[in-house]
Amino acid sequence: MIVVMNHAANDEQIYKVVERLKREGYNIHLSQGVERTIIGAVGENKGSGCIAVEAMEGVERVIPILRPYKLAGKDYKPEKTIIRVNNLEIGSEKIQVMAGPCAVENRDQLIETAKIVKKAGATILRGGAFKPRTSPYSFQGLEEEGLKILAEAREITGMPIVTEVMDTKSVELVAEYADILQIGARNMQNFILLKEVANTCKPILLKRGPSSTVEEWILAAEYIMAGGNDKVILCERGIRTFETATRNTLDLSSVPLLKSLTHLPVIVDPSHGTGKWSLVTPMSKAAVACGADGLIIEVHPYPDEALSDGPQSLTGDNFQKLMVETFAVAKAVGRTLGA
After folding, report:
1. Residue 217 is part of a domain; what is its CATH number?
2. Structural domain boundaries, residue 288
3. Helix (H, G, I), strand (E, B), or coil: what is residue 240?
4. How many C-beta atoms surround the C-beta of residue 113 within 10 A?
5. Given pLDDT bands bounded at 50, 70 and 90, which one contains residue 140?
6. How far apart are CA 126 and CA 181, in angstroms?
């Protein structure tokens, strides 16, 4: 349930409500806004708790939650969540562009790419140090060496880095280097991993699973938030359908839908969503037009030589073109790109 305290409620009244809910067996999540304090009570409704709490001092109203997700929903937090990474805001009117290679292949490749995307206006550097691949014979990433190269690129460019964490045993290592931890599509319902990354208290970029519904995706975010970390960024990266002309079907309708259901930032990955570099720019513009808070784009200095996802990677020139055209769309809808 959601307990909305009135604007004049004091700390003692809030404390008494929280303690009563704990005695009823609920887990408590506080959201203290400028005008209202909202108490999220997650757990089984035992019957008497809702009525008793509504009669307590300082309580304005009690709202039962019918949807299976509690903390990610707008009932719990009507205002949108803005996640801060250094001096950047994800979820505000500014659209953040994350760009870089699919995989960190070597130092020269990453540093060159980082400089290219920084010059074009990207604000966050992406790159995979651990690479989950369909084939066990494909390039699997440089692991900790790749993390060290990413950290060096951050020092050179000033851009925070986002990279994927694949399993629970590597969470601590990746969190040591990364500013944002990415949960890949294949791990969206790896619930043990979701619980573990919640403990890092770092922003978590949660990609949608290839066969996951919107509700399943939000519930995956709920696992992280229930673990005490509300800094979740949802990433639409395409779903598996009957269509074979593109790598995936980029479900842009999920962006405004999520905006109506949750308070979390939503970004779009048109690189994995289409699998074709020629479609990345038009789908980036469409993503911004329908309300995305950011983009995550694959860029490589030499896509034909890339060890991973070359066909969907943009060259530096094509990325520059994307930024110019996408900026025009952002301006048309009252937003802007970058810091």
Report:
1. 3.20.20.70
2. 83-337
3. coil
4. 28
5. low
6. 10
74 occurs within a structural domain: no
46 within some domain: yes
Angstrom distances, CA of residue 75 to CA of 36, 191, 275: 13, 24, 36
Q: What is the CA angle 230-18-258, rounded to 5?
A: 30
Nearest 5°: phi and psi at 263? -105, 5
Total domain count, the chain:
2
In this predicted model, what pLDDT tens digit does every residue of 45-66 receive, in sequence order?
555 555 678 889 999 999 887 7
325: left (phi over 0), alpha (psi -120 to 50) or beta: alpha
Q: What is the chain's mean pLDDT, rounded?
A: 93
**Does the residue 71 lie in any domain?**
no
Mark whether 210 and 276 lie in a shared domain: yes
Question: The tokens of 35 are what?
Answer: 């005008």
Predicted local confidence at residue 1, as pLDDT: 84
CA 141 to chain centre: 22
Q: What is the CATH classification number for the domain harbouring 51?
A: 3.30.70.1140
